[in-house]
Amino acid sequence: MAIEEIGKNALTVLEKRYLAKNDQGELIEDVAGMFHRVATAVALADKNYDEKADLEKLGNEFYGMMTDLRFLPNSPTLMNAGRQLGQLSACFVLPVEDSMEKIFDSVKNAALVHKSGGGTGFSFSRIRQKGSAVKSTGGVASGPVSFMKVFNAATEAVKQGGTRRGANMGVLRIDHPDILEFTNCKADNADITNFNISVGITEAFMQAVESNSDYDLIDPKTKQPVGKLSAKKVYSMIVDSAWRNGEPGIVFLDRLNRDNVIPTQGEIESTNPCGEQPLLPYESCNLGSINLVKMLKKTKDGYDFDFMLLGKTVEQAVHFLDNVIDVNNYPLEKISEVTRASRKIGLGVMGWADSLLMLGIPYNSEKGIRLAEKVMNYINNTGHAASVSLAKVRGMFPLFSVSTLKDGEELRNATITTIAPTGTLSMIGGCSSGVEPVFAYVYIRNIMDGTEMLEVNPILMRKLKEIGIYSEELMKKIAADGTVAHCKEIPEEIRRVFVCAHDISPVYHIKMQAAFQHFTDNAVSKTVNFSKNAAREDVSDVYMLAYKQGCKGVTIYRDGSRDSQVLNIGEVKGKADDYKGRMAVQQRIEPRPRPAVTRGFTEKMNIGCGTLYVTANYDENGICEVFTSTGKAGGCPSQSEATARLASIALRSGISVKEVYDQLKGIRCPSTIRQNGMSCTSCPDAIARVIMKVSEFIENQEDDNSVQTIPEPFAGDSGNKKSAAQKIEVPSSSGEIHTCPECGSAVEHEGGCVICRNCGFSKCG
């Protein structure tokens, strides 16, 4: 049993995101308990088909498959199976129709999916173009991008208990009139941050690119041409944007629909957030991955694939994923209905790159490509055979008779295979991610709100120890580049095999993706990694090669093209600082200890909902402590305490008073601003004002040796000259808004809310 092989980094991830906790946030299960919980819950589905099913035996089989780390289901299944939430699917596609009512129905549905732990894909191609007429209101449409921002904001508002954050895929057809705006909508990395975006490419468009001709833009409502664009210029714009920051990716819509096995149910318009799972509206997919490293057996010459073990694991995994469909607690009834009608599953792989390392085969070799085709062909064929066997016992998927598969053997599942990214799953499994090459052999992994994990590839470590050249100094040298390619201390044969993502030409990235795609029902998640100095032409060549090689989509990323990224080679990058050397311990700012004795001042501040007392204490090094308390009238004690604590840590860490002041000053609270007698605009603003005043007092005492005097309190605003928008005075009880926080005009209380007739502000949103 390989459960003992779970490493420290993986255990950290499991404890933070996967293992069950009580109401106090304390762990109430261990790793073995998690796998037992999942195995038991998923095995229960067998009772639907056989009252005498041996659930204990099946549960033990599922448990063994997972604890051996041969197979892991997608994260929601590990997190939620056997628990109250019970939502086990990773990804969903929701329709976005061209009406305000249906758009906001989709926003609501997306929020429910995100709350349950799933990601969502959308096509915005049905929304009419920006500036087109809206007959019902006499106005003009704002276009798809404006509504993407609405979805983005809704996603931002939905938190998932610290485990999973909502993610979205936004797709727009290449022939939509707003395609240029869409292509550039994420030019700023701070925009629409909860979306990945992809352009839906058609075969006709790619042919127009090759022939350097124009193509039609189609009105999504009338389906009639409304203009033309140069295909080559639009293609170049897509390439340029992707080169700039990795967005958009591209998906080949005609190919997705060529393999749509139930076209009677509609067109496939979008994928899940990572691009590998094309789905019809309201479909979900349940994913899982086989750890190919565990499928290797030792031979006298090294390693080889154990196809008997692989076949057994595929059969068990298909059974497991089909059961997930039955025990799943779907976030919407419509999703349950549509998912059960097609019963799509997505069995994939992880650990491919590590397998090649153990086999001594370079990722960027024709031998590696041929082996990929052999392994995936075997998995796909075995998976389909397992689905046929299930259909004989449980019945075919309900839409089989109207599917493109109706003339063949009956299948339990409309699709069986998908190559998904495996992210944290591969960390748990202790292997490389999906079918990606090793990103770097020594690197810092930035995960979960800034946590940094230093990792060294264990296969390289073992290899170097075998030949007696492993050392910390050598690891530091590898860390400087993230590759062994330039380390002359390492034998050439090892360097030839141990290639990383940036050692591999884009051609071989695409060849490997295509090799797996040829034997995968759905699609393949794969990122083509470019070095920082890659040219735009390199991106263009990759997109064209993906088209010619039969891929269903492609995503690229040029190193360093975003301010922050999950994995970093050579240096950890932020907006303001470059930290050199991944192996070296990164410098950390530590706050100085609070002295035993301090001096300071407490000031009473009037806030809109009562009284706030702000205390700022100092020692010989400056302000060292800020804390607050509220009067009986209320306020936001938890928020103001949190602000004061963070300010204290910042000031004791050497952050300047001015920097803290600039961050907090002027923050506005509707209950405070523009009221008579107010000395601040919010609790944070009050804290800022007090620490600045105390800081100035300290400086003044240092400049001269005069006797210390207590600073004067801040004057209220009652004597200030009012603007024209503030002339109207409206009586109100304590704590209520009586002037508009947006424009300062009088507000009215009606319908249980507060509204401003001047600018339209509403406290109720």
Write up what this structure looks like.
With 765 residues, the protein is α+β, with helices and mostly antiparallel strands. Among the domains are: 91-271, Anaerobic Ribonucleotide-triphosphate Reductase Large Chain (Alpha-Beta Barrel), CATH 3.20.70; 599-703, Enolase-like, domain 1 (2-Layer Sandwich); 721-765, no CATH class. Helix content is 36%, strand content 17%. The chain has 23 helices and 28 strands. The strands form 9 sheets. Strands 1, 2, 3, 6, 7, 10, 13, 16, 19 and 20 form a 10-stranded mixed sheet that branches. The two termini are 55 Å apart. 45% of the residues are buried.
List keywords for this structure.
disordered C terminus; 28 strands; 36% helix; 765 residues; 10-stranded mixed beta sheet; 23 helices; 3-stranded antiparallel beta sheet; alpha+beta; Anaerobic Ribonucleotide-triphosphate Reductase Large Chain; Enolase-like, domain 1
Average pLDDT for all residues: 85
Strand fraction equals 15-25%
In whole angstroms, the N-to-C terminal distance is 55 Å
Low-confidence stretches: 571-587, 705-710, 714-738, 745-755, 757-765
Backbone shape: globular
Helix content: 25-40%
CATH architecture of the domain at 91-271: Alpha-Beta Barrel
Q: Tell me about the biggest sheet?
A: 10 strands, mixed
Rounded radius of gyration (Å): 30 Å
Topology:
Blueprint: H1 8-18, H2 31-43, H3 55-67, E1 71-73, H4 75-80, E2 91-93, H5 100-115, E3 119-123, E4 133-134, E5 139-140, H6 144-157, E6 168-173, H7 179-183, E7 195-201, H8 203-211, E8 214-218, E9 225-230, H9 231-245, E10 249-252, H10 253-258, E11 270-271, E12 278-279, E13 284-291, E14 296-299, E15 302-305, H11 307-327, H12 333-342, E16 345-350, H13 352-359, H14 366-394, H15 423-429, E17 442-447, E18 451-456, H16 458-466, H17 472-481, H18 492-497, H19 506-517, E19 527-530, H20 536-549, E20 553-558, E21 567-568, E22 571-573, E23 578-580, E24 599-607, E25 610-619, E26 622-630, H21 637-652, H22 657-664, H23 683-703, E27 748-750, E28 753-755
Parallel strand pairs: 2-3, 3-6, 6-7, 7-10, 13-16, 19-20
Antiparallel strand pairs: 1-13, 2-13, 4-5, 8-9, 10-20, 11-12, 14-15, 17-18, 17-21, 22-23, 24-25, 25-26, 27-28
Helix pairs in contact: 1-15, 2-3, 5-6, 8-9, 9-20, 11-14, 14-19, 19-20, 22-23
